[in-house]
UniProtKB/TrEMBL annotation, chains A, B:
Record has Membrane as a keyword: no
Protein name as it appears in the record: TetR-like C-terminal domain-containing protein
Signal sequence, renumbered to the chain: none
Pfam families xref list: TetR_C_11 (PF16859)
Top-level taxonomic group: Bacteria
Species whose genome carries this gene: Kineococcus mangrovi
Keyword Transcription regulation on entry: yes
Domain Tetracyclin repressor-like C-terminal: 74-182
SUPFAM superfamilies assigned to the protein according to its UniProt record, in alphabetical order: Homeodomain-like (SSF46689), Tetracyclin repressor-like, C-terminal domain (SSF48498)
Alphabetical keyword list: Transcription, Transcription regulation
InterPro entries from the UniProt entry: Homeodomain-like_sf, Tet_transcr_reg_TetR-rel_C_sf, TetR_C
Length: 202, 202
């Protein structure tokens, strides 16, 4: 059983919500993250936290999975450009919030894989991008169903998610989502004739 | 005086080399970074380290500035494509090395700016990208001098450096530098007629 598979609304789900909130709060405060501190902030027994999440790596991974998997939902504007613009803007806003940025930083600091993490826990790092990849695939599948030309999910990760996250992590100003999306939609997805019209160049 | 401005070959420069190496080694070992530990590993007095670098944030920033500013030098192949391919491949290799990756992670974890750092010290975060920006500008200026069309330095940061660094930081496989560079050279830099030829599409 993975921690994310608990029933919504039940006791177990309420504990998860409190624990995830405690992790994010402590990180944003710059407090060192330990299981007893998370348990105290969430108002639950440390024993339950150890049993369910294993350790700090497990806590981080599950928090990142839930936080970055459910936030910034797929917009459904009816066009690839519209969806990428709305979703990209949501990513920029999210990566600029102290709590989400602290969670991203902590996940990066924790490394790609924690050998001490119990089996079944995704590493905090990959957990940050799992939800994003799924959302990108959803946006692209909807565009394809409408008959639109699309870039690959990897292109969306490399040329929309990567600039937004890298600039946030390194303290640079956020990129213009319009410019990033123009590249994905007009230069990578549209047919050559559309790309060659002077109006499409920038 | 910034720490990077010491004369090469002098006593002061030798101390800096030993201290930078100690920082990178300790990070790669996963050891907690403290001034006394860095001093001990480098074989210098902790007092000298405090006086010159201030604290751990100053140590990190100066190490990142030197390490990421002097490594992966600009290749000079005679073409924009050739330079970006060689430089991008060097960035991929570097971001995959345990020492450089540990330094990137530590810089990200340290945040965009440390209010406790003494004035004149660049934050470790921005220091990681300072050298990269300078190198990108050098490559682009050389291409412009040859009469080549070029993307902007920001495009190179967003679409070559960002995917390489983000994937390394989050533990994903490295991107194909050829694919990233094709986008920068053929889709963003070349004139529309070149972009419209079927052979240039992918």
């Amino acid at each position: 059983m993975t921690p994310a598979m608990t029933r919504p609304g039940g006791r177990s789900a309420k504990v998860a919500v409190a624990v995830h909130a405690a992790v994010v709060e402590l990180l944003a405060e710059g407090a060192p993250l330990t299981v007893p501190q998370v348990a105290a902030r969430a108002g639950v027994n440390a024993t339950s936290v150890y049993r369910r999440w294993g350790d700090v790596a497990g806590l981080l991974a599950d928090t990142a999975l839930v936080r970055f998997g459910t936030s910034s939902p797929v917009p459904g504007t009816g066009s690839l450009r519209g969806d990428l613009l709305a979703w990209g803007a949501a990513l920029v806003e999210e990566a600029g919030r102290p709590e989400e940025l602290a969670l991203l930083r902590a996940a990066v600091a924790a490394g790609p894989a924690d050998p001490g993490a119990p089996e079944g826990f995704e590493s905090a790092c990959s957990a940050c991008l799992t939800g994003r990849s799924t959302q990108a695939e959803t946006i692209l599948a909807a565009a394809q169903a409408r008959g639109e030309e699309t870039p690959t999910p990897t292109r969306v990760l490399d040329h929309l998610v990567a600039p937004v996250y890298l600039r946030a992590l390194f303290g640079l100003p956020a990129p213009s989502v319009e410019v990033l999306v123009e590249l994905l939609v007009e230069r990578l997805a549209a047919p050559a004739t559309a790309r060659a019209t002077p109006g499409a160049r920038r």
